[in-house]
Amino acid sequence: MSRFPRLADLTTDVEGWGFFLCTSKQTRTGRSGSDFLILTLQDVSAQKVAKIFDDIERFGAQFESGEFVRVEGKGTFYNGQMQLVLSSIRRVHAKQDRLEGFREEECVLSAPRPIDQMWSELTGRVAAMENPHLRVLLSRILTDHAEQLREWPAAQVIHHAYRGGFLEHIVKMAEVGSLIARAYGADADLVLAGVILHDIGKLQELAYEAGAASYTRDGNLLGHIALGLILVREAASGVSGFPLELRSRLEHLVLSHHGTREHGSPTEPKTVEAFILATVDELDARLHQVRRAVREDAGDGEFTAWHKRLARVLYKGPEGSS
Amino acid sequence: MSRFPRLADLTTDVEGWGFFLCTSKQTRTGRSGSDFLILTLQDVSAQKVAKIFDDIERFGAQFESGEFVRVEGKGTFYNGQMQLVLSSIRRVHAKQDRLEGFREEECVLSAPRPIDQMWSELTGRVAAMENPHLRVLLSRILTDHAEQLREWPAAQVIHHAYRGGFLEHIVKMAEVGSLIARAYGADADLVLAGVILHDIGKLQELAYEAGAASYTRDGNLLGHIALGLILVREAASGVSGFPLELRSRLEHLVLSHHGTREHGSPTEPKTVEAFILATVDELDARLHQVRRAVREDAGDGEFTAWHKRLARVLYKGPEGSS
Amino acid sequence: MSRFPRLADLTTDVEGWGFFLCTSKQTRTGRSGSDFLILTLQDVSAQKVAKIFDDIERFGAQFESGEFVRVEGKGTFYNGQMQLVLSSIRRVHAKQDRLEGFREEECVLSAPRPIDQMWSELTGRVAAMENPHLRVLLSRILTDHAEQLREWPAAQVIHHAYRGGFLEHIVKMAEVGSLIARAYGADADLVLAGVILHDIGKLQELAYEAGAASYTRDGNLLGHIALGLILVREAASGVSGFPLELRSRLEHLVLSHHGTREHGSPTEPKTVEAFILATVDELDARLHQVRRAVREDAGDGEFTAWHKRLARVLYKGPEGSS
Amino acid sequence: MSRFPRLADLTTDVEGWGFFLCTSKQTRTGRSGSDFLILTLQDVSAQKVAKIFDDIERFGAQFESGEFVRVEGKGTFYNGQMQLVLSSIRRVHAKQDRLEGFREEECVLSAPRPIDQMWSELTGRVAAMENPHLRVLLSRILTDHAEQLREWPAAQVIHHAYRGGFLEHIVKMAEVGSLIARAYGADADLVLAGVILHDIGKLQELAYEAGAASYTRDGNLLGHIALGLILVREAASGVSGFPLELRSRLEHLVLSHHGTREHGSPTEPKTVEAFILATVDELDARLHQVRRAVREDAGDGEFTAWHKRLARVLYKGPEGSS
Amino acid sequence: MSRFPRLADLTTDVEGWGFFLCTSKQTRTGRSGSDFLILTLQDVSAQKVAKIFDDIERFGAQFESGEFVRVEGKGTFYNGQMQLVLSSIRRVHAKQDRLEGFREEECVLSAPRPIDQMWSELTGRVAAMENPHLRVLLSRILTDHAEQLREWPAAQVIHHAYRGGFLEHIVKMAEVGSLIARAYGADADLVLAGVILHDIGKLQELAYEAGAASYTRDGNLLGHIALGLILVREAASGVSGFPLELRSRLEHLVLSHHGTREHGSPTEPKTVEAFILATVDELDARLHQVRRAVREDAGDGEFTAWHKRLARVLYKGPEGSS
Amino acid sequence: MSRFPRLADLTTDVEGWGFFLCTSKQTRTGRSGSDFLILTLQDVSAQKVAKIFDDIERFGAQFESGEFVRVEGKGTFYNGQMQLVLSSIRRVHAKQDRLEGFREEECVLSAPRPIDQMWSELTGRVAAMENPHLRVLLSRILTDHAEQLREWPAAQVIHHAYRGGFLEHIVKMAEVGSLIARAYGADADLVLAGVILHDIGKLQELAYEAGAASYTRDGNLLGHIALGLILVREAASGVSGFPLELRSRLEHLVLSHHGTREHGSPTEPKTVEAFILATVDELDARLHQVRRAVREDAGDGEFTAWHKRLARVLYKGPEGSS
Description:
The structure is a homohexamer.
Chain A: E1 15-29, E2 35-42, E3 47-52, H1 56-60, E4 68-78, E5 81-91, H2 94-99, H3 115-127, H4 132-144, H5 146-151, H6 165-183, H7 188-197, H8 202-205, E6 206-209, E7 212-215, H9 217-221, H10 224-237, H11 244-256, H12 272-296
Parallel strand pairs in A: 3-5
Antiparallel strand pairs in A: 1-2, 1-4, 2-3, 4-5, 6-7
């Protein structure tokens, strides 16, 4: 039995073994009355459902959700998606398994671009800001939240939902926002600040552990827009001489970045920079979904299957083109 | 020429004189090319439009918007509403005019119930709260914002739009919220805290001067819900030992009190107390509009004229019933 | 094997026996091609799905939907909910099973408050009405429909969906409606009449038998609002001297109690009493759903699972608090 | 000075005299401070605004709203519409003015087709119904409400808003509904009954006097759909042996004829006949608006001015085509 | 084993054999880990799901999707619908199976009315058109697209989804559209042209093969309304002397026939004929869904099960009536 | 009397003379019964209402709408906007008035950037396209429609509503679209093609004459999206070897550029380029409105007056900042 390819490249009927992160583990009772285990496994490239039908008590005792595991099994196609049916599973023993090729970072679903590269691009942009108040404020925020900002996903499910996804989203928005700001003679520093801070409340909205995100109490009761506002207000208080008018503009960016009240913004864009930020945020999230749907679609037609969230199919190009 | 009745009782063709607060003053050019002055005047009972067609340069120099004035003129009916057409106007000379009956408080549109009475009812409720953290927090807020809370209107236009209107709205909501909380075994202290704090951000959203409210910078850019959140967060920080969980519940009340995102709440009610608060707030505002529309409707049918905001007519009762 | 606890307290892997009401019984073919029985069982506390996989022909012949049954089996957790997998089932033999503890009223899902207590509170309120026309009208309606009003659920699925639920909903609304009417100086008799009559059309909209409700022909073709209108019109005709204007107000309450046309009210509230009624109805239904979701949520986090109808999670309080 | 042409043909700067029905009369104060009278006048062909600027006290005493009047004046174009500016006005003295050509029926805005002709077409259709229960029911209703059904407009403002408009709407719907029912093998008698009864509640919803319609108390509090339901229920009670199932179908037609709840139907079409009725009603109202907009548009382009209710312009055909 | 009845009449537990068209064939992995085949089979009367659990490799090699097949098996009831569980399947051998009663046209889901009859009704209507330009244009289109127009379904799923369904929809719309056009004095030729052309773009939007429809590239990227516009534009270019104004009217019909922008019409009806066309199209599609839901509903109550697309139940009539 | 400043700089009570383009001319009857002329005048910087109260017959004969005029008068403030009240007006005599400074291009409301500069930027972009099919197609379109593309406004009213506005909108979109396409690795040629063609149908939708735009027959009946589709289809037919797949992508861009069906796109974006195009189009239109509202707002507060179309006020910055 050979090692599995990356999960993104898994095909049906391939048997093998591999190292993964297990991010969820549940017991279910099948219709026949017998129980089975249903897991979520991930590596750097993708995330898949896995099931264990035999000896589930024995195997169930060998690992917990949140641990790295070594599995054996084969790929199957179920309900239009690739899955794994496992014949054995156990938790990773780091030292010893490393000899067989276990690498932690290879088992965590991650952004395609290296995190260090993205981080240095972002800190470079901040260091180059002209407005000294914003430069100080953002430098501190990047320093204080570096670990989270580097590692977190951008969202639980919808887009950029993997290690470094938050950073990837911000870095791309910073690039695009900067171009648009210049094209329209808008305040590029303010747009960059908005880009970095617009979802900063998510650091308190979500708790992110071992590949699984969940809402915190304040995440559910207040939401990331309100939490972001408080964070910005407190951070600005810590920068002596931070102008009140600038603070208002900045907080307006955080509050209005969803664009409309229906989408959860208690106030709607009222400055050129706020219109740009809301546009760039939505466009980046949209394009990320489109690209991912096109890449992950398993069918062989010119169009993807129906995309529920976007409520349409997407064009992949003529057959044989990719 | 005798003194005008209260503005609420003004009738057509009545000539007279009176003391009022002027809350807006503009020059317009009529179709014939000649200019006229258009003012807004108020007394304790109502607010009316007034116009001056003759000698406008001389009269325009005699007063400013925001001042108390003494006018002469007569009532006319224009576009379905009572107006005043003035033959003269000048600013009040307090000392001397007091001899003729000028009283400041008689010239400011006000809540029907005496402010001191409402205030003592509200402070009594706070003093009786069982939860010591909330009691301390709210006592301070009542103390710190006493002047505004006593004097302000509840809204610019829609409901309780007069001196003491804010307080009137809170006091009635406190009464009703307390009854409902008890009926459903909800946390009555929390509901009361929500009632007092739900619109507290309006104290920064609006600037209120000489009978005229206008939006502040942060009022427009952040909105009263966000401003209220910040105020509560800061106030809670000032109360030592204020429990985090209680703070979350309280901030949730402020954020969710509009009930839905479409109405500007970035988060929707998720606790029994939040459902009660949103319900009581909407009901009180609605009933205030209904009562006012019924009271002010000038027609003699059983129904009011079309009420734009409520998008319906309202039933006044059988003719001759009031 | 010991007796099951109440269904509300059922836990996984508990084996036992019990008496229940069976409210639905269907045969399904499993994927493996073999059939199984799927039932709905209830007792006074809750309602659960139950399945029989073996000997289904023999067991299927031992009972019908709508009968009380005695079952043996064990609790299992399936798709996030507790179920029963039965090893045997038969209809109850009342006489003999009573010796083992069978009590009919224990096998019917019911309101938590005793029906007699609620009924006497409601009739007391009617007897105390000041308006003689309304008092006569409502006394008759309570008398004529006593059996249904005491026993029925308030709704098929959404809220108060159990024996006595209709009465529970009305009694609580009467309490709250009376408090609010007094607070706003509204006509408390009219509000009480609206409370009792607002859903009276449901007595013809639904047929309720052996724990299962279904729509009648007129229920589907006319709906309970129209049926309620007709019932009120006919009842008022039977009270000599019932004033036309009062009848109009009353019928308006029935027609407008859903608050908006989108929610099925052909006319929207146009009186203070109609606004109060619609508010109290919605609040009571909402709070009932919130309380039930919090109570029934099986998870151990601070929030319930996603509530489909309310489209949000609900806050249960800090872990370990309940 | 010669007699005015019909109002539909009035042109600017034409001076003349004429007989009309005055359906509204108000005094307004102009900007210059002087009052003027503003009236609504109609004849069989159209309805126009008229104004009197001079001697308004004298002229105001010569007639009331609801009376036939004799006027002198000239046509003017104001705000995109033809108006009359009057130099004199007085009430009609029937006997004497008849000598000059006054005919009551010429002064009331009316349907283009003769009422007797439409009425006999409708009664003919009822007499030919195959279902005896429906035939009896509808014959009685036509008899009992003959006067109103013959004379009333179909709506206050939107469509068929003139004498005989109600009948015109029903007769055309009967024709079209009958054709569609036959094409789809639907119950033609039921469709015809629905056509005649769908708006029957308007006879109680509106009070119609001297060319002016207003809402009654029950019209505002219950609405014509609810009033129609009650009327049908009572009428069916009066026909011995009227089958309950047929009554349900008929009442369903009345309740569902607006098609959706948003449009005020508390229940939506659930039978083939109900779908047909709602479709025919909407189509006839729409086409009537389209035809009228095209006919009345004063511009010389290929399209009408913006039609507010339909939210679009309408195509009149190539220039010079009509 | 006897031959199956028509699929529309299939009942549970009936064993037999039959000829069908297979329009889809997929392999799925069951929960137990073993694979099964899931097919869609149709005959002239209906379409059903079929499954094969045993020997799937052998049977899977005996036929492909798109072929006629001979099957053995029995009817079962699963998830509220009739299915077939097959014990054997093979492709049809036309010559030999014809001896046993195989007829191609009996194995393709088809409109109830004979296609030749509908086609001759439609060509007759076109031949009788008065407008020579439209007559020439439509004759050509009928000739050029005869095969597709005769054979295609009207829609993939929603209504008239079977052989000849497109034609059936057009022929019925032509009948009804003609009646309504005459009743309103509209241009009947234009309405007929609109009826025939309104969905003509579907001939390029969909690819239809062996009973299965799928979207083409232009179908997904442009949609049938845009494709229809281009087709009409090109066809009109081919008719010498086709008036520009007539072309505009015709293209307007195609573009506006969904009635509103929300439903995909980039322009809304602006002529009497466009209103008629949109109405007739929607009514025919609606009634087809209603009739089908009533006919296919398997329950024994007076109402159908919940109809998802129409979002309501439908009335079938009193029990025992059909 | 000195020459007026540019209309954008007009202030109240300034008397003077000037040359303008008159784009509309109507007679109205004032309340006093006397007529006046109401005109729209423009110069390169702005557009204003002008009125003539005296001698209107004489002055009315001196010019027509669509002509350049020489006027004398003064600025007045009416209903919150600057207007001109004219004391004399006559058409321009080009030769002679040129001596006094009349320049045609100074009298037509125009984009701020020189047209030649924008045009050469655009043609440069097209010449640099890598895809030869698109380069040929677009070069022809630029050549064939050069005059219109250079001169036209982008919209009748909403944004870029002046000479060269169409070009200004396209050139800015080309700049921004190119940046975004590169940032996301999208097909920049396709985005540029979409930018140039997205509104190309407007060249047939509108007729633009002497500063005034109006809808054509096909503009109203088909709309610019459908007209654009036809134009692209025909243009692509003229380029030999134009790939079908590329044509589909291009037509999809035109059809989907409004983003949603509610906004008039019969198909929604299904490619990365289509998402980018719709985003850039909306952003440019929005920012143009925001900038214009901020620039034209006459008030002295920090915020503009209520912006009807955007349904909000806009932030101008701290007082004294501009």
